[in-house]
Every structure is written in structure tokens, then in C-alpha cells.
Design a protein that fits this description.
- The structure is a homodimer.
- By secondary structure, chain A is an alpha/beta fold.
- Chain A has 2 domains: about 160 residues, 3-Layer(aba) Sandwich (Isopropylmalate Dehydrogenase), CATH 3.40.718; about 160 residues, 3-Layer(aba) Sandwich (Isopropylmalate Dehydrogenase), CATH 3.40.718.10.
- In chain A, about 45% of the residues lie in helices and about 15% in strands.
- Chain A has an 11-stranded mixed beta sheet, sandwiched between helices.
- Chain A starts with a strand and ends in a 6-residue tail after the last helix.
- In chain A, about 55% of the residues are buried.
Chain lengths: ~350, ~350
């Protein structure tokens, strides 16, 4: 017996349009026959798109909504008028437990604001964070926050460490994931005061044995820690810079192979391995970041996601639903709360 | 007739020790016969190291100093006791115009604090910034600040834009270099308030035609602008993350070539191009960041610089001395001042 999982899909608000979203769902369905979808958005557009994918016919429901949260809508204005938007309705379904998870490629700020408003944060968490896994030399590490909180205080950083640790336990399968705070140096007096304070707290907390201190941008890709804690501004820029540099490397490699005849012959010899490397570096295969710290599973896809990329985001939502990540985080936080050894003003 | 250039070299305080610094100077001397060196640090150690390089014998002077600024010394404590340190004495020589430029692989915070104290900032500049060039798909861009200022205000960002523009004019040879502010989105309401304010000011300033608005981490590597303005915390982490990802890509490529027999054959075919690519990605060939905005040329080398890497830093100091970068920046700032169209509170 397989457990059915129902995913709410916000079809509107992505850069590439509803078609690539539906196409992504069809791709994901091929990999996960146990999944059902509730699509939120333009009723006719969605039904037309679904009709092109026979695989979606018996596992899809469409909830027509009149409005769309646009990429340039301010979160504050979306909070006032989320009614009958694809994002707002989908979140209501998640809130009312009519679906197991939600995936959206829409406006990140609006999605986070609405998610906080409708789902509320887990008990003990003052601000949710956006988390994802990033490859390093010998595996993957978890990084958070990636953009939910432009400015953070000491308490936020400590909570990110707690959430990141619980997340990494499940996702990376590590019993005691190593945690580091991203800074401009490893010495205690380096960087911002708020980071120094958070670091001091973590050293004295129940996480002390997992806490490795400050980490830098050039060591996180060696796998020096399993969880990298940072504010949403720095995390967003570090992640995007990493993507940019990875693309630049691919560009250089391509140029090298196509530069002369020997290169072209070498390319033919190594084509298969190169394909595997390309897949490894392709951000589309890792699309999807989890909003951690909420009463519900919300996965944010890249706004510019194509079908392959959006399918990856749905995959993550499906996986998280089955793993019961949310419940495990709540349990972890309850354990923390009862241990009472973190005392933040 | 070639113009002689004298470089002050702080031999102490690097991670790899004095030998690699002297060895780097010897490498640089091979490329730049017109250079002379004044080495500051342990008299006997330096003389012993120099004796191993005949090329350095007739172009070197050693100034023995008793103390060393250590990597973990706080800038504030170094300010109180810089006398008779290799860094402090070398800066005094630069201040007194007895040398044309200074190169140090020592403690960045201390070097910046001492440089500010001894050299003073250029007229109109409230805070110097650390700037370097970074490769993109079709050339290079300038990025600043890379670590001098953990927190920045609106005025600082505008001054970084001005300094970065003057720097790029010379280094990249562009008449009107395009300027962008690094942020988490391109829309005006995205990110930190201080960045939004700086952006609004630049749009109204004499730089308006060069100013392209906000740029993101994944587009700067496409060469979307010539100058990327950011605070020292974000810039440092973005640069180091870029280095980490570049190393990771190299690691993956190596693994691909050594993975099987076909890969090894392909490697032999493409060895030469791969060597060129490696050199292009090798951060050691681009070592050296300029402290912009001071009355003197100070180049900061990576603390962990080996000989090749330190030689690159000396090369930059030599190039900047010849180009008269400092004077051109002063002139640029004077032009700005007299145009009077930037009015920051």
C-alpha cells in the first residue's frame, strides 16, 4: 500500500507561465505515481494545459482563482488582498490540512509573508527561514536563511541553527550535524556583533558539541560543516554568486572543448562523464527551497523555473511530506524547549 | 629610459612565512626589472632569504623591525602599538613618500586601520574600501568593498561607486564603466533600506548614466556591470564563496578526467587547454586587492599567499604605481566635488 500525497500547486506568478508549471507536475507525477495535485489559478488555462498530459487526468483538481500575486507586488500589499489569489487560496487549503504541502514559483516575499500570516510559525520560532541543500566536495550542506529575513538578530540566528540542525538530521541523515555561522573570519572578534553574540550563545547551548564556530565562504564548499547559518541577505547573495560562478565554470569548460580539434575529440571521449557533471552542476535538478519554521510544508521554486526545474521543487515537497519533516522539527523544538538550556533575552 | 619603482614589502605576518614572501619578490623582479624593494621585518631572516636569490641582491634594502602584527591582533590594539612593527614602519615609509607602494600579506583589519591612521583618506572619502578585479564571462569586473567595512551607510555606498568607477576607468579601460549595487533583487523596494537610499541618490547624481541599478549574485558573473558596489561583509562572503565554488568545479573536473580510461585519454588530448583554464581560474594569479581611497597605494595579499601568489600582489602594486591610480582618483573626486551634484546628508 502506498500513501497518497496531495500537493497544492500555485500555477500563477512564475516567470515562465502556467504551462511550464503543469508540465513540471506531469514530470513529477511520472516519478511519483502516489501523488495527487490541486492546481490553483486560471481555471481555463490550467484545464487546457492539463488536457495535454494524460498522466495528470485522474489525479488533478483545479481550483479557479481570479487574481494573481505578481512578482513585483509588495508583501505588505499582498497581505491586504490575498483573497481569491492562487497563492492565497492554496495556502488556505494547506492551513486547513486539505493538502499535504504547497509549491509555488511566485513572489518569494509575498509567499513568505502570506505563509507566516496563514500558517503561523512553529511554537518557539519567531521567524521562519528559507533553507536548501547545496553540494560540496563530498556531499551536501544545508544553508539558511536564503532570503526571508534581510536583517536578523541574535535570537533569529540561534533559531536558524536549531531549525537547520533538525532539517540536516533528516535530509542529510546525520545524527549530530555540524553547524557553522557564516562570517568574514573564523576568529571570535570578526564580523558583526550580532554574529559574535549568537556564536557565544551557541557555544554555551545544548548544541555546543555540534557547533563549529564561524565558517567562511571558501570553506563551506569543502563540507567543513553540515549547516551554514546566515541572514537572508548574505545567504541569498552567497547562493546566487555560487550559481553565477558555477555557470561561469560551465561556460569556460564548454569554450575549452570547442576551442580546437583536440578539444572536440576529447569532448567526444568524455561526453558521458561531462553529461553527469553537467547534471550535477545544473541548478534545475536542485530547485526548491523549504520554508522552515512554519506549521506546514511550503516549497518555493525559482521564479524562472522551467518544467524540469519545477518538477524538482514538487519532488522536494513530496519527499518532505512523507518524511514528516514538520513534525520532526516540532519535536526537536519541544525537546529543546524542555531542556531549557538556551536562554535568549 | 625606464622609471624605477620602489615597493615596500611587509615580510612578516603572512601565514606561509617570510620565505614565500621573499621568493614572491624574486618572481616579481624577473617580470619587472625596473623594481626595487625595501623589505620590512626580521633583519637576519630576510637577509638569509634574500641571499638565496641573486636577482634580489642589487635591488633590495632591509629595514629590521622588532615586532610583528599578528593575524589575530585586533586593529584597535595594533593602532596603539604599531611602532617598530614591519607593517607600521613600511606604512611610515609610504607616508613619507620614500616608497611608491606597499604590499602586505598581514592582518587585513590591522593593515586597513593603520593605513587609514597613517595615510589618511583622500579628500571627500570618509571610508576607504578594498577593491579587486574578478573575471566574468567576457572580461573582468571591479568589486568593492571586500572587507574593510562590515557595516556601511548610504554615503559610504555612494563613495564606493565613485571610487569603483574611477578605478574601473583605469583598470578596465572603460570610459563610462557601468555601476551596480549588489542586492537580493533588482526591484527598487528590494533589500536593505540603506541600499535603496544609495540607489536613489546615484540615480540623481552625475553617475546616473553609468548607474544600472541593483544587480544580483548570479548576474555579476555575466558582466552585467563593470563595478559592483557592496558592503565589506557581503563582498567578502560573495568573493570567498566564488573562490570556494571555483575550487569545487576544479575538483569535479579533475575527478571526471581521472574517473576512467576514456577520461584519462581525453585529459592527455586537452592537457594544454586545461592548463590555460586552470591558470584562468587559479586565484593565485589574481592575488592582490587595492585599498582604495587612501593617500597612497596599499596592496593587500591573501594571508595564505605562496610565492606565485605574492608575486601577483607585487605586480599589482607596480602596475598601480606606474598608472598613477591614486592621482587619477583624486582628480576624479575633485571633478565630482566641483560638479557639486551629489548632495548627501
Amino acid at each position: 500500500m502506498s500513501i497518497r500525497v496531495t500537493i497544492a500547486v500555485d500555477v500563477m506568478g512564475s516567470d515562465k507561465g502556467p504551462k511550464s508549471i503543469i508540465s513540471g507536475a506531469a514530470l513529477s507525477k511520472e516519478r511519483h505515481p502516489e501523488s495527487d495535485y490541486i492546481f490553483f489559478g486560471d481555471y481555463n488555462l490550467i484545464n487546457k494545459a492539463i488536457s495535454e498530459y494524460s498522466i495528470l487526468k485522474n489525479c488533478s483538481e483545479v481550483i479557479g482563482t481570479e487574481f494573481v500575486v505578481n512578482p513585483d507586488d509588495k508583501p505588505s500589499s499582498v497581505l491586504r488582498k490575498s483573497k481569491n489569489t492562487s497563492m492565497g487560496e492554496a495556502l488556505d487549503w494547506l492551513k486547513n490540512k486539505k493538502v499535504d504541502a504547497l509549491v509555488s514559483a511566485g513572489n518569494t516575499g509575498a509567499l513568505m509573508a502570506l505563509s507566516k500570516f496563514k500558517l503561523r510559525t512553529l511554537s518557539g520560532i519567531s521567524r521562519p527561514a528559507i533553507a536548501t541543500t547545496i553540494p560540496h566536495a563530498n556531499g551536501e550542506f544545508v544553508m539558511l536563511d536564503l532570503g526571508a529575513n534581510v536583517e536578523c538578530n541574535t535570537e533569529n540566528f540561534i533559531q536558524f541553527a536549531i531549525m537547520g540542525s533538525e532539517f540536516a538530521k533528516i535530509i542529510l541523515g546525520k545524527e549530530k550535524p555540524k553547524i557553522g555561522i557564516l562570517n568574514v573570519g573564523t576568529e571570535q572578534e570578526k564580523g558583526k556583533l550580532v554574529l559574535q553574540e549568537a556564536s557565544e550563545h551557541l557555544k554555551k547551548s545544548y548544541l555546543s558539541k555540534q557547533y563549529s564556530g564561524f565558517v567562511e565562504g571558501d570553506t563551506i564548499t569543502n563540507g567543513v560543516v553540515d549547516v551554514v547559518v546566515t541572514d537572508g541577505f548574505t545567504g541569498n547573495i552567497a547562493l546566487k554568486t555560487a550559481e553565477g560562478i558555477a555557470k561561469l565554470c560551465s561556460f569556460y569548460i564548454k569554450k575549452m572543448f570547442l576551442g580546437n580539434l583536440l578539444g572536440k575529440i576529447a569532448y567526444l571521449l568524455i561526453k558521458k562523464s561531462l553529461g553527469l557533471l553537467k547534471a550535477k552542476l545544473d541548478p534545475r535538478t536542485r530547485n526548491g527551497a523549504l520554508f522552515l519554521g512554519l506549521n506546514g510544508i511550503v516549497v518555493k521554486s525559482h521564479g524562472g523555473a522551467d518544467a524540469l526545474s519545477f518538477a524538482s521543487a514538487i519532488d522536494i515537497a513530496l519527499e518532505f511530506s512523507k518524511e514528516g519533516v514538520g513534525k520532526k522539527i516540532i519535536k526537536g523544538l519541544d525537546n529543546l524547549k524542555s531542556s531549557g538550556d538556551i536562554n535568549i533575552d
